[in-house]
Amino acid sequence: MAYSDKVLDHYENPRNVGKLDDDDASVGTGMVGAPACGDVMRLQIKVDDNGVIEDAKFKTYGCGSAIASSSLLTEWVKGRSLDEATEIKNKDIADELGLPPVKIHCSVLAEDAIKAAIADVKSKRSNEEANA
Amino acid sequence: MQYPIYLDYSSTTPVDPRVSEKMVECLTLEGNFGNPASRSHLLGWKAEEAVETARRQVADLINCDPREVVWTSGATEADNLALKGVAHFYSKKGKHIITSKIEHKAVLDSCRQLEREGFEVTYLDPDENGLTTPSAVAGAIREDTILVSLMHVNNEIGVINDIEAIGQLTREKGVLFHVDAAQSTGKIDIDLEKMQVDLMSMTAHKTYGPKGIGALYVRRKPRVRIEPQIHGGGHERGMRSGTLPTHQIVGMGEAYRIAKEEMQDESTRILALRNRLLDGFSDMEEVYVNGDIDHRVAGNLNISFNFVEGESLMMALRDLAVSSGSACTSASLEPSYVLRAIGLNDELAHSSLRMTIGRFTTAEEIDHAIGKIHEAVAKLRELSPLWDMYKDGVDLDQVQWAAH
Prior knowledge:
Helix content of chain A is 48%, strand content 20%. Chain A is an alpha+beta fold.
């Protein structure tokens, strides 16, 4: 299969690889996919007091398109508010990377990952408020 | 070194230069271009002679009578002809066929077609080493069983079935036995005097011959009958019509002649290279060989690098030509059915790499491949959340995955 230059670029030089401290209340973690399906993404965001994503990290087990989708997403979400980040659709990722139809599921997974991370940080926040 | 380094000899082999030299002599006006079926002039006779020489060369490699060799376009056609040919001829005797779950698609899809025609097929599970045991075959044979079809050597994991033992059993039971030998010719000894095989599929292009030519062995004593699947002209004693492609056939003959002569030395050399390759990974964690390592052809190494997905691994190995059992390499998104049938979990199936070594592989190429794979696996594990979890002592089997 031929990969687009953008997929190759993210694969060769993945952005924001790493791990944030999940015990930190300002960190949200989205872990989606399953080893059995050949894709697992872990996307983490760190949100400041104004609800803006100040940092994002990922690690992905999966094909080059899955790695590129999550790498691109971390670039996109940084500096956005949680609401803005929710607006990112899998189609935006697929279009930007030029994913072929058989790889669309990789972009769907990335969208699921950011949604899960946002939900996680929101629930952490509301728990904190409830405890306060 | 020439890039990419070719480590996919089970997929196809380059044509040996000695073979292509013979082939080009059978194409042009100055050469042996006649129709082997032309009985009326010298050019036809000369072409026929070349075809019969090649038939003898093929027969010599597998120790049978040349009259038992029927030319086909390759192993896929030979498999189709064997299964459908036997099923259609013997359907009055019975309608039950036995095969295994890890056969080549040429056999499995032919079986599916026969099922649509009213035949019943039993698909045997291989053991965890990938072998189909004689006792598994014995347990599946019924009154109405007409055919057992099994591969000699598996294309993905290279394991070798005990054809002699299974042949003994099928002969005793009066059931025909077809063997797909596409992956074994020129790699291990095949002696059809000793092996009680009734039909055997072969191809040229996995034994340094050209693509587009193969053969089906059809036993004469005791006689095996098949219904032809391609009609028109009655070539090959009516079993497979169509003008014989002299240059292809001559190529297959020469390739098999070379195989017979050089197989012993070549296997020793290739085995040493395979061991060198395997040793190259001995210092890595979580590396698994798939399939029986002892009952295996010399050139095959199928190996899983846990927590690394196969397609991304191949992406990092662009100067190696290898293949993967990972889902993403095929449009189906299903990992290798062969690896799953031998009990591999999906992670390991997705993480597998098949490297197959052949006649032109060098030690230098193996060393280069080892270095590249080390780098790539290290890089991708650094990227892998599963590797992180493994290193943190998380049991991945206990995790509730959000499957998609």
